[in-house]
Amino acid sequence: MRSLFVCNTPYQLFNVMNLALNDVQGTRLVSDLFIVARFRDAKKVYDRVIAEHTFESVYLIDPQSGDTFIKECRDSILISLEKKIKKYQIGSYDFLEKKYDQVFIADGMPFGLLMCQFYKSASVWIYEDGYPYYYKNFWQDLCRGRKQRIMSLFNRGLSTIHPKAFFVNNAEMCKSKVAEKTIQLPKWNDQNPAFPVVCRLFDFNAQSMVSQKKVIFLERPFEECPKYNGLSPEELLMDLGLAKDSLVRIHPRSGRRYNEVLVDYGDNMWELECLSNITNEHILIGDCSNAQFSPKILANKEPYLFFAYRLFYSYHDLEDPNNYEKQIDQIRKVYSRKDKIFIPKNVEELRSALTWIFKKEGVEFTN
């Protein structure tokens, strides 16, 4: 049985290695991997993947060589799938002569869809790409999008794909109905053969700043939200008296500068930090970042969670303020200590909750 994997993000590759190295669906021996270079250092990661000899062939795809939406719709009528694939810059197109029995994708990005459509006799399997996949019916939402509705008119797009199953890192938490079956991925632990491999692929340093500080602010590109009120993470941490005792983990799209707080630029993959360095005593502050859910999803760890979106956004002006509550309610249901989850309405509520943790729970900082 020959398998094909497509990944667009580091986290998708993280999950692909878990699938392949644990021989899920017979993928260990005869599999090819396609890495779409949409992330930082994709070429370095690609070279490391080749050195691991996990896959028979590994292909690096230039994402800029694909089509725009208008061209994609037009070409769905005018040109063949093979010609569409060859619009992407790939070192070799020898895979077009191969027969694949199964295709694994994680999202609705164009190259993965082309692979599903070109190898139309292959079974399609979906694997997760983060917390939004747990509480939304994301596949159905994608199918209802304007682009996919137009593509369906030409028998292309997501509506033509019927996944056999959905692989996730925490089946207990998953409420999304992507496929008839939701299947638990192999657990991440010291016995998982994928763990040392992904540490090498992403050049993970276990002695990171995350292990040195208990309070971690998970930054987001707040300016991308039109309801952002201008409060900076640095101002907040200084107001709380945490400038010396906290760490700000920078978001990849952020251009914000910091002067008074310790900064982690994300050289270590966050998911590996969750597996190796995050503990139940950590305090994670964010607006409602997907990263805040990762310790529970991947390692069943329960750090203190502060969902501080009311501090950064004009809550009543948000298009769907209940969306945050839906996400938080879901993780609250699976937390054994529900008193470790907070939604502060203002800075004083945040300060009061932190004081309770420090005094009552005995959480200490590592300076």
Summarize this structure as a short list of keywords or feature phrases.
single chain; 367 residues; alpha/beta; seven-stranded parallel beta sheet; six-stranded parallel beta sheet; 15 helices; 15% strand
Q: Could you characterize the architecture of this molecule?
A:
With 367 residues, this protein is an alpha/beta fold. It is built from 15 helices and 13 strands. Strand 2 (31-36), helix 2 and strand 3 (57-61) form a beta-alpha-beta unit. Helix 1 (10-21) runs antiparallel to helix 9 (194-201). It is globular. The protein starts with a strand and ends in a 7-residue tail after the last helix.
Please outline what is shown here:
With 367 residues, the chain is an alpha/beta fold. The protein has helices spanning 10-21, 42-52, 69-78, 81-85, 110-118, 132-135, 138-143, 146-152, 194-201, 233-239, 270-276, 294-299, 309-312, 322-334, 347-360, and strands spanning 3-7, 31-36, 57-61, 102-105, 123-127, 165-168, 181-184, 215-218, 246-249, 262-264, 283-286, 304-307, 341-342.
Draw up the topology in text.
Elements: E1 3-7, H1 10-21, E2 31-36, H2 42-52, E3 57-61, H3 69-78, H4 81-85, E4 102-105, H5 110-118, E5 123-127, H6 132-135, H7 138-143, H8 146-152, E6 165-168, E7 181-184, H9 194-201, E8 215-218, H10 233-239, E9 246-249, E10 262-264, H11 270-276, E11 283-286, H12 294-299, E12 304-307, H13 309-312, H14 322-334, E13 341-342, H15 347-360
